[in-house]
Amino acid sequence: MSLTARPVDPAPLAHDRVYRHLRSRIMHGDIAPGQALTLRGLGKEYDVSMTPARESVRRLVAEGALSMSASGRISTPLLSNERIEELAALRALIEVELASRALPRAHLALIERLQNINARVGEAVAQRDAVSYIRTNLEFHRTLYLRAQAPAMLAMAETVWLQMGPTMNALYGRLRRTEPPQFHRLIIAALRAGDEPGLRLAVRSDVTQGLRMLAS
Amino acid sequence: MSLTARPVDPAPLAHDRVYRHLRSRIMHGDIAPGQALTLRGLGKEYDVSMTPARESVRRLVAEGALSMSASGRISTPLLSNERIEELAALRALIEVELASRALPRAHLALIERLQNINARVGEAVAQRDAVSYIRTNLEFHRTLYLRAQAPAMLAMAETVWLQMGPTMNALYGRLRRTEPPQFHRLIIAALRAGDEPGLRLAVRSDVTQGLRMLAS
DNA sequence: CTCGCCAAGGTGTGATCACAAAAAGGAATG
DNA sequence: CATTCCTTTTTGTGATCACACCTTGGCGAG
Q: What is the average pLDDT across B182-195?
């Protein structure tokens, strides 16, 4: 057995490559809500046949990242305000629990890493770059939640992020603030202090903050 | 336009039929954990080609109802105790919220319907029929949660049920009780009284009760 | 009897094609 | 100018096939 290289990249499966790339684009708000996609178009874009394109689309539809009309047409979902409220409530429920479980394992190295990420969030906000903002913001949350050692919960949270992706871009496009997210600082402070109630409140506030933009 | 018939069943799509039937079997514990499946076998069983079988399997894998090995082999998932604990915690989080949202809309007709379903749960327990027990038990919960008017949350809860399906059967197979579920009565009583804290506690207890069987 | 090897069958993957249905475009009619 | 109808194009669905890989069963060497 070779010791110099990893077991070898076993399978750069076409459908998985398409799935991962599309998923990332959707989650980070790179595709507008309601945007239509076609299997042949995706196949052309990723240089594969319809078969892997179909599989990746089917997978994303199952996760709520894409929606299909009755006739099978594919598009990113257009979320109603009620559904956005639901998804935000789910984020609050799941992510507060994840943060709470991560708290006892959050050492100094993690907190410093969160501060570095938060600095990048601030840069993205200053540059009005919605996609970068969404990406670094989610990286902040994921870095914290990874410490919870709860993969099923984290997967659920990511599924919610995925469903909100296209809409988030449209929402943050209206955002005119230039200051970095205030609640991230509260999260970091609560982590330092080992303050569990404070952490729960800070995460809940951060997650539901975006809802206020709907009233504009 | 015809008034006697519905717009016509537009598409008994093969992959959707396979998906629905498989999903139901998995959610209700009709398939043992770790059971292997093959695309050609499923195609033969449902009298379709590999293509629809693949699509339905891909969808179920995306929902966590099936798992794939690194080489692409398909089987129902074998859950570790840690994952079972996580899924139970997710059920507690989401279903308590759903019940709480359903409470203000729960009228007498709904409560009576829940009592009828609960009677059927009791019969299934008395007959030691694990699949019937799981099916009627989930019907009890779904009937309540439908009143919450929160489709995204309900979908999340069903995804968790789906992931636990095969394992639930194995778990309830050990069950030797003959009395109907005690917490369902508490849920109904709390609904009658409009007692929100009591309802939350009853749902949480009912959902996490199964965990105690792991210690046996 | 145990272990290793090798061949045969089984399995998922991806490409291609025929088909039906839906959308799009344009011409003719009011 | 709007509307209806028809043709053309586009789109998703499902079947089939070739291919590479894994798994497994059996055989033979030690």
A: 94
